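Entry:
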Amino acid sequence: MIMKRMKKWLALVLACVMALSLMACSSGSPSGSTAPSQEPSTAPAESAAPAESDGSGTSGEKAPEDYTGTLTVYSPHDSDPLNAGVAMFEKAYPNVKVEVVADGTGNLLNRIKAEAEAPMADVLWGGGADSLAAYKDYFQPYKPSCIDLLDSSLYDPDYLWIGESPLPMVFLVNTDLVDEADIPQTWKDLADPKWAGKIAFADPASSGSAFTQLCTMLMIYGEESDDYAAGWELVQSMIPNLAIQQGSSGAHKNVDSGEYPIGITLEKAAVQYDTSDAGHLKMVYPTDGTSAVPDGVAIVKDCPNQELAELFVEYVLSAECQTAQNKDYGRRPIRSDVTPEGLMGLNEFEIMTYNFDYAAANKADIVEKWKDVQVG
């Protein structure tokens, strides 16, 4: 009986010892165990604000030095403004190399056409927009960031080419040979018989600028619906007065020298001379209107370097480049926020609407008719 009570007591003591041991073990965390987790937060995580560009090429935009590669530019521009513009671009984007292929507008456009299956050029910089319009199937659209600063008449409505320097057509008059009261003010004034054989004019069959001048006269006075018949009547009446020059430079150089009293030429050619009151030459913007067909810039369709091509277009249209080209080379800015140095603003004289598509699509027929009219 005593033995049974002792066994029960020992069993009870042993149970108590085991219970105390388990409590001791549970009071601390053994090595490698996980501490009790905190209660999860019900507040949503705060997301980072998107980076905003400050215009310096950082925080979401590429920095200038991040652009790399080689860009191929075809250009008919004169070597000085061409080389200066390229040098400025390469300075702005130091890790981009520009390779230039220089030639006449017609040759470069034909080359772009021939290379259409495997384009070599990225950009065509220069050439009259009416010539670019004739080859617009070989360009791809690009709408530059400064489009709101450009007159809508000076770029393709589908952005296949963008004007980069307007080229108004003007009269250059030698005031040693023409009295102030007789200085022609309109295209119709050039048809006056007193100017027989006295107006220097390049041949539209060979000169791109003269072709534009011919189309300018047609489009001011005629209508597309009848192929500018009234314009052709004006041209017909002017024929006896025109002294045809072999090159476009003759239309201003020979007026300066006194060989002819009047020339029809480009503004950019006329501004090479002193046309102030102190000089012997006067530049006239026709009051019945004139064209301002621009040199254009266009991205070649399926070009090898699309990103760099867009970058180049943006740069040649930038205020920086436009200002330098105007100041150093007398090229007229196309941007409304860049005031031309030494030139009237485009809003200060009458600009007609130039039918680029018609001139491009009918160039061969227009030249052929010109030849017929010229020989009578």
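The domain at 169-291+364-375 is CATH 3.40.190.10 (D-Maltodextrin-Binding Protein; domain 2).
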